[in-house]
Amino acid sequence: MKKLLTLTLCSTLLAACAAPARYVDPAADDGAVTMTMDYRDFERAADDAVQDLLASGVVDNPSGERYVMVVSRITNDTMQRIDTDQLVKKIRVALLRSGKVVTTTAVGIDGAEDEMNMAARELRASDEFDQSTVQEKGTLQAPDLSLSGKIIQRNHRVEDEQQVEYYFQLSLTDLRQGFAVWENETPIIKRGPNDSVSW
């Protein structure tokens, strides 16, 4: 009983001495760099891609209208379980704000991103809905452009340290002709102790 009481007291004291949780301001974060990917890496890769894409001029529509883009497959070829949407969402937001591109959610590699696009159109057969408010046939727009890509990880030994390389590779395809009209690769390279975890 004495041992149990001592262990409980020690655990409580250790927990009380632990640093409290706190918010981190991403714009002013100078925290420790991890060997795994973190939000700063996605921010950097997305910003690099968007700046390069806008500077290339391929999304400057001669008609002045916005291009319609669909997101294709972004493959995760790293040792980490990551949600590639974290990268794609940042790119989509920046392109939408540029006024040059909108993203369709009506189609996608694995079906519609937002299934409500089709579900709302099924209301045409219902007497319960005012048909003047239901979406008409032929109003969805097909995409002009498709964004696809891959995130690659490579690990190397460099003297007494390990080097982890991440490559964010993106392609923008003109769906009318099937040509890749823009491609970009952003490398993010980290070097640290061999005992650091990179997955």
TrEMBL record:
Q: Which InterPro entries match?
A: LpoB
Top-rank taxon of the source lineage equals: Bacteria
Work out whether the entry's keyword set contains Signal: yes
What start and end residues bound the annotated signal peptide?
A: 1-18
**What high-level taxonomic lineage is stated for the organism?**
Bacteria, Pseudomonadati, Pseudomonadota, Gammaproteobacteria, Pseudomonadales
What keywords are assigned to this protein? Signal
* Name of protein: Penicillin-binding protein activator LpoB
Q: Say if the entry is tagged with keyword Transcription.
A: no
Gene3D superfamilies according to UniProt = ABC-type transport auxiliary lipoprotein component
